[in-house]
User: What shape does this take?
Amino acid sequence: MVGIAGPPGSGKSTLSASLCEALLQAGEKTVVVPMDGFHFDDAVLNARGHRARKGAPHTFDVAGFEVLLRRIKAQEPDIAIPVFDRSIELARAGAAIISAEAKFILVEGNYLLLNQPGWQRLKPLFDFTIFLKVPEAELERRLLARWRGFGFDEQAARAKALGNDIPNAHTVLAESAAADLTLQD
Assistant: This one.
């Protein structure tokens, strides 16, 4: 099980998909497990007053995510996982299945190496960790493009990227444990 961490917009999903494809091409059973499936629903975030910070560490079910990783580590058969659909800002329960035959599990998420309560229990579950370090200006460029790509106008894209994603990036960069391998853009 490989943990691929880094700030929002650093390329975790892209790297995970590329590694998965290369391993599948080599005949290795591989699956990607995105942490984003463990976003709390907007109704929960609204009730807690956290909707404006969706994507921050406290807006995820880290305990549930830890249970999932432990089940994967135990090689339980046919584990259903939630997958976050960014186009509708909603996690879809049971959207993918992890087979016990999967040899490589590529787990990707911002906070996999975070040194905060709950999150710090994740790092020992990984056999190898990778951290993606990208300059803030490039993160900002990518995040603005992401939100524009989802139909946000310039003002709304800037609000999402600069008001939430970049502060989350600062948390990831300042409070993550060292990875086995750091890739710098």
Summary: The longest strand covers residues 90-98. DSSP finds five helices and seven strands in the chain. Helices lie at 12-25, 42-48, 62-73, 136-149, 154-175. Residues 2-184 form a domain with the Rossmann fold fold (CATH 3.40.50.300).
